[in-house]
Amino acid sequence: MSILLNEQSRIVIQGITGGEGSFHTREAVNFGSKVVAGVTPGKGGTDLDGMPIYNRVIDAVEKEGANTSGIYVPASFAPDAILEAIEAGIKLIACMTEGIPVLEMVKVKKALKGTGSCLIGPNCPGITTPGVGKIGFMPNFIHKKGNVGVISRSGTLTYEVINMLTNLGVGQSTSVGIGGDPIVGSTFVDMLELFEADPETRLVAIIGEIGGNAEEEAAEFVKERMSKPVVGFIAGQTAPSGKRMGHAGAIISGGKGTAAEKMKAWEDAGINVVVNPADIGKKVVSILSK
Amino acid sequence: MKIHEYQAKRIFVEYGIPIPDGDVANTPEEVREITNRIGKKVVIKAQIHAGGRGKGGGVKTADSPQEAEKVAREIIGMNLITHQTGPEGKRVKRVLVEEALDVEKELYLGIVIDRSRDQEQPVIMASEAGGMDIEEVASKSPEKIIKVGANPVVSFSSFQGRKLAYGLGMDKSIVSKASKIIEMLYRIFMEKDATLIEINPFVLTRGGDLLALDAKINFDDDGLYRHPEIKGLRDLDEEEPLEVEASNTGVNYIKLDGNVGCMVNGAGLAMATMDLIKLAGGEPANFLDVGGGATAERIEKAFRILTSDKNVKAILVNIFGGILRCDRVASGIIEAASKMNLNLPMVVRLQGTNVEEGRKLLEGSNLKFNVAEGLFEAAQKVVALL
Q1: Which residues in chain A are closer than 8 Å to B321, comparing Cβ atoms?
Q2: Which of these is catalytic: A143, A247, A262, A283?
Q3: CA angle, A89 as apex, A86 and A93 as ends, to 5°?
Q4: C-beta atoms of B271 and A142 within 8 A
Q5: 3-class state of residue B269 by DSSP
């Protein structure tokens, strides 16, 4: 078991013929992912390394049994690509695209409601389940199969944490980057809920950052519903107010969304907060060996 | 992206939102002419992006064209310091001259994106506590703020305007007028990809008119590609020059007050690196994310930007190579450092793909790099070099 990606996942890559799309598709295949098709409107009938390419997502669903999608299309086309995947009945959609206007995501989220589809991202590094497969940018070599769930709003910082765990001999059930935008398909709470229910996951490492209130919502969930231990770190303890720190969602506005408030909320909820990101691995090991 | 009050008011006018009679001026002479045309008492307002202009002496009234000219001479060219400008202040290049109004009531209207899980949509807010710092009102007396969520799939409905207008205690004779203004604000928000709109204060005059006395609009940087008319309103003088230069080269840079410059790939790791520097007893001089494709050229530009800050006394490079290979990054760093004759002490920490090759390249170069392996070790090493 794991969350999101499993043995039944049959992946279609939207934007497979683009530079990023084709590169990361090949990386994912090397990692063991079952990529069954690609979609690029206008390139239907061609293929990538023998993987059939279609004009429409619905064709990949009907002809190849695709039930999972990875999206690598430019920001101006990405909302449309997500909507197409939802309409085609794709159950798990990971969108890596950065730079989608926030109001477009507001509409996409309204469209998602009630469909039963789960969207990860946008502006995220994707999902990796070691031993099963991956969608997205996470480097292949950092993972190791195991029992720690990883959730994060960032990219390279997540790789650091996964790599740190792997080097300490601690494997992961699933690692998921939920994305750095103000509005994302799935929040910390959605992921915590899945990890809490996953028998393979024993502990969850969660990496938050400044801006918004996703960390506070996660705190509430952990306090009320989580039985598994959680280790957390919040990036941006030294970030100034009013500045967008790279990610569109990483901004302290009106004095709200600071690292200090979030760390306090997590501590109050019983999350094992580390102040120093270099200590995440050690903390996880010390809790697992108890 | 932020714009000036007078620019925001021009957008209001396009959408039929009433504003006071007035115009923008670059010189005291123009201020006199505008005041003369308005023919009554005026308010002269410094146009800078920061808030708190009144308290800083950037907003003054004048009874006559002569007095207006005199006041304008004090404001135009002044270095205006407010709680939002930082201690260095902002130089005032132009002012907005507007008729002074006979105000009965000062209200607040605003729209932001509510990021909470049960909303995730724009929220329109109104308050009777106009003219005050709304964040303070929100934390001290949240009951004074009335809210209505706005689902863009459903679009605006008149009840939303009524909910706020009646909630503000308005007389029924002006409710529909207020509701129309609220609807137009919502349309601006949606049609221009705004992330924040505020009218504070939104005033009711003794004559029963409703006007936007102030205007603030922030736009979504990610939406600018489809709004060339908004992009054109950007005032580069209001931004940190190094940040502008960085954004032109695709590097994400934010200047801070410390002396340890840092260069990192990825926003989250860049923030964490700043935190590590602080934990090691230093102060970060900047946030810098070189992005995914950290080529030698990009690295050189990033070095140039972060070393233009004269406070920088040591540099920490922290790169996690995933798809990006550490040996490539290492040769990029060596190339950039030798080309630039970079002689500040530097700690380089590489982790990830081809890390051994990368470290060997650094150690074998004739440039003096301090190589670190651990995350915290790197921060401690760079702080020790100060």
Answers
A1: 139
A2: A247
A3: 50
A4: no
A5: helix
Q: Quick one: CA dihedral B161, B162, B165, B170, positive or negative?
A: positive
How far is A28 from A126, CA to CA, in rounded Å? Answer: 11
The per-residue pLDDT for A122 is 97
Q: Of A160, A187, A235, which is closest to B275 when you measure between CB atoms?
A: A235
Searching chain A, which residue's CA lies closest to the CA of residue B282?
A238
Torsion angle in degrees (nearest 10) through CA of B112, B115, B120, B125: -30
B304-358 pLDDT, tens digit each: 999 999 999 999 999 998 777 888 889 888 988 888 888 899 999 999 888 899 9
**Structural tokens at position B247:** 């954004």
Question: Between these two residues, B260 and B140, which has the higher pLDDT value?
Answer: B260
Quick check: A3 and A94 in contact, CB under 8 A? no
CB B314 within 8 A of CB B347: yes
DSSP output for B175-203: HHHHHHHHHHHHHHHHHTTEEEEEEEEEE
Q: Which of A123, A227, A233 lies closest to A179 in space, CA to CA?
A: A123
pLDDT over threshold 90, residue B205: yes
pLDDT for A1 beyond 70: no
Which pLDDT band holds residue A51 (cuts at 50, 70, 90)? very high
Instruction: Locate all alpha helices (DSSP H) within chain A, ordered by sequence.
Output: 19-30, 57-64, 78-87, 102-112, 156-167, 188-197, 214-225, 259-268, 280-288
Residues 98-137, chain A: which have Cβ within 8 Å of B? 99-103, 106-107, 109-111, 137
Q: Tell me whether residues A246 and B120 touch, CB distance under 8 A.
A: no
Query: Residues, chain B, total?
Result: 386
Q: Which pLDDT tens digit goes with each residue over B13-66?
A: 999 999 999 999 999 999 999 999 999 999 999 999 988 898 899 999 999 999
> Residue range B231-251: average pLDDT?
91
pLDDT > 70? residue A256: yes
Q: Which residue has the tokens 């969520």?
A: B149
Q: Which of A18, A10, A9 is nearest to A39 (CA)?
A: A18
B127-155 tens-digit pLDDT: 999 888 888 888 888 899 999 999 999 98
CA angle (A243 as vertex; A237, A246 as ends), nearest 5? 80
Residue B277 φ then ψ, to 5°: -60, -45
Q: Is A167 on the interface with B (CB under 8 A)?
A: no
DSSP string, A145-159: EEEEEEEES-SHHHH
Residue B322 falls in which region: left (phi positive, over 0), alpha (psi -120 to 50) or beta: alpha
Lookup result for tokens 């002496």: B57
State mean pLDDT over A32-44. 98
pLDDT value, residue B105: 95
The reported pTM is 0.94
Q: Report the complex ipTM.
A: 0.94
The DSSP letter of residue A240 is P
Half-sphere exposure of A40 (CA within 13 A, CB side): 19
Smallest Cα–Cα separation from B200: which of B47, B24, B5? Answer: B5
Cα–Cα distances in angstroms (integers) from residue B305 to residues A88, A127, B298, in the given order:
47, 34, 11
Cα distance between residue B91 and residue A243, in whole Å? 20
Q: How many CB atoms lie within 10 A of CB B38?
A: 19
| pLDDT tens-place string over residues B172-195 | 999 999 999 999 999 999 999 999
Chain A residues with CB inside 8 Å of B272's CB? 157, 160, 233, 235, 277
The Cα–Cα gap between B313 and B40 comes to: 56
